[in-house]
Hints:
single chain; alpha+beta; five-stranded antiparallel β-sheet; globular
Amino acid sequence: MYPIEIWKEVFKNKIPKDQYEVLLESGEKTGLIIKLSSENYKILIDFGIVLGFRVLDEGIILNDSSNFEQVQSLKKHGFDNTIYEIINGEFQGFIKQIGGNLCDYLELKHYIIITINYVIEVVTQWEPDIEVMKLEIDWQ
Length: 140
């Protein structure tokens, strides 16, 4: 049993609030790259090499009873922040458990990204690089 997760806003206002679709790229050379797109923005979140990530349908994780009140509060406000850091996260605990002594020396960070259809959790040593591109509207 893990302690209750705490979702902490990070990179406040860096990613504009919008309805994003997701494209994941993961490979040995590039690491994990998450591309978010909407009618207004293209977002590139480059995590580089990560210890682990998982992708779940948003309906599954957002109804989790272990942190239900906190998630419902954030959901009520439309998940203003898109990306959060999780403190005492179950997934980070799982990574530490299977990683053994190696993880004790690493300052691991656990992030969660909320999109229209998916929730993406990432456990890594580093903060991601985030690039935001506003799309121009052609009124012709």
